[in-house]
Prior knowledge:
This protein has helices at about 25-40, 40-95, 140, and strands at about 100, 115, 120-125, 145, 165, 170-175, 180-185, 195-200, 210-215, 220-225, 230-235, 245. The chain is α/β, with parallel strands linked by helices.
Amino acid sequence: xxxxxxxxxxxxxxxxxxxxxxxxxxxxxxxxxxxxxxxxxxxxxxxxxxxxxxxxxxxxxxxxxxxxxxxxxxxxxxxxxxxxxxxxxxxxxxxxxxxxxxxxxxxxxxxxxxxxxxxxxxxxxxxxxxxxxxxxxxxxxxxxxxxxxxxxxxxxxxxxxxxxxxxxxxxxxxxxxxxxxxxxxxxxxxxxxxxxxxxxxxxxxxxxxxxxxxxxxxxxxxxxxxxxxxxxxxxxxxxxxxxxxx
Length: 246
């Protein structure tokens, strides 16, 4: 506050008039007080200006503090929403990695859970059900949607043979129960491109999926995926670093 209000009011250093000091002395002290009060006008005005300036600076400070606090609250809300989205996505990927892809013509019974062609997870609510999950009609009674659909064009039938993985078609489900498969990563990638591959059938432990030699973690090498029901997420970091394992 001393920095905001530099001016001070000088104290009265004279003597308070009293009748006992005699008429002449009394009149002299009264004149001194009147002179002090007249002289006080300028410092009082300066002090009032300092107070007004301090109030203005404080109001600006409070406004800035409110603005920063509002921005921080908005950013915190964004972080919370992003965290919730990522947690939901992680839960979904985990669920997908342990769920069978719907097979047309197969009979399903409660409590089976499948990945449908629309990318949604559905629980069978009946016995020996042959309707297609997510198709509406009677299907709505036979199947219960468990999660929102993935906002991606993927979840095609599992790959059971060698294939080339493209970031705009990721993620890829693989089924190596019939034997190992080779995966070629897209020949041209943009910075930040992501490819996800997961083991939908649990076959990697016996028949690994192998990503053929390309630049991975800065070195040209192949990558063997041998963790049953596992998943891998790769992001392209440029020609110098190649694909990074996330």
